[in-house]
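step: validate -> pass
step: tokenize input -> pass
step: predict -> running
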Amino acid sequence: MKELIHLIPTWEKATKSWPNLLLVITTLACSHLAIAEPVTATIPHSSLFEVISARAKKLANDDYVAPKDIAVAALNNINYQDYRAIRFKQDNSLWKDEGLYELQLFHPGFLYKTPITINTVDHDAKLSRVPFSTDFYQYDGSAAPLKDEIAKSVANTQLGHAGFRLHYPLNTSRYKDEVVVFQGASYFRVVGPNQVYGLSARGLAIDTAENSGEEFPMFKEFWLVKPQPEHSNIIIFALLDSPSVTGAYKFDISPVTNTAVTVDMQIFARKDVKKLGVAPLTSMFYHGENSTKFFDDYRPEVHDSDGLLTQSQDNTWVWRPLNNPSQLSVTSFSYHNPKGFGLAQRDRDFNHYQDIEAHYHNRPSLWIEPQGDWGNGRVELVEIPTNTETNDNIVTYWVPEKPFKAGDSLALSYKISSFNAHLVQQHLATVVSTRIGSAALPGEDNPPPKSHRQFTVDFSGAEINQLSSQLNLQADLQLASGNARDVTVQKLPNSLGWRVAFKIAPHNGKPVDMRLALKLHDKEVSEVWSYVWYPNDIK
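step: predict -> pass
step: emit ->
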């Protein structure tokens, strides 16, 4: 009990008014121990974030202790097919038929070798640890022999879980769909109505795209507050830990006309962090309409997201189409108190994907909306080369300008919202397509170098689509380097929008950073299109 005694003074200030102090600390301090029976305690969920923050602060003052992997050979050596054959039994769902939400668990093993602890908090403030049991699961096919072996191996210990998912009547009152999943490191995924899982959110990103390598913090313990039967929102708390950072998180999840997640975070630095990524989103872009490489694929496009969208404090909207680059690409947008950023899947036309299994046209878009003062910083976009759609190669996050040093703490809040092609608060015309081709004319005897490209960018919006083609819409095109020529603006047939076409010539092999917006007289009537062309993308 040495650890328990050491914890009490640290928590005393935050919890001095609680009559169940010792019981609460015992519960949390023992959450990682090998015990067979679930632990219970009493604690009001209104105080839980404060308690977890105190624990995270305590952890940050201690040396990092890496979590232990599963000590069950059968689970460490399990393959993908066997793992998929282990399914949670729906009849064993926690809170089944007690309200709008039901909780299901993920079995540890395969890639998920570091189990986590899951607790529930009932209406009467009773906190209970959710035990692992092979009885929760159906072991089918090649996984059938594992049940007895696992049960025997963990008979006197508490194995823990790989993660969990929440079910909610999102699309029909007759069935509860998956609405949110927490599984792996600090990853979680949400969907809105009539969407399928695609991009992921994360609790925190550390040193992404740095030469020193990325660090992946982990949500090591969760507390799920059981909602009242008629309540449409649910609150989840989590404790984050990593070699560099610890933290407390609160997620208030509300799936109604879309799925919204309000996040409160309090993080503490164990040591200096080279790059802190707040509110990270991770996605996949394999190929799309702007790709210049050949992909031996019957599907015209394959991606979970097709662009990064940002909104500044002065309501300037910027759209950056995603790319699968030839080499690692890291770009950023500097802001003071940004109103939001996110990854979107704007193209929702099945004919552009032709994938009846992956349903890329139904993947969610996610918008991050900062709450309160975030100060100066940058939205960073990382694009990683990939030769398969199974790799997540897109990451974006907010990087505060102020360095995060050992001993520092940071409290921030933000809202994550699911949407489809467009946000309701965006009123200007938006980019609907970006296409790139050779700048050479058909049959040209002396064509320009392959690095010289023809761009066509199409804009669409209810207001500009109704404008007469006789109006003189202008392309406000700016290049940080290189030259542009043959810039034209034309209205598309059938009031589909307006097209800007132009050719660029890089200078000395340097990347061409471009910004483009449509103007009518002196007013911008579209969002800003932003793109970087790398001459070496054409071999």
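step: describe -> Confidence is low (pLDDT under 50) at residues 1-37.
step: cleanup -> pass
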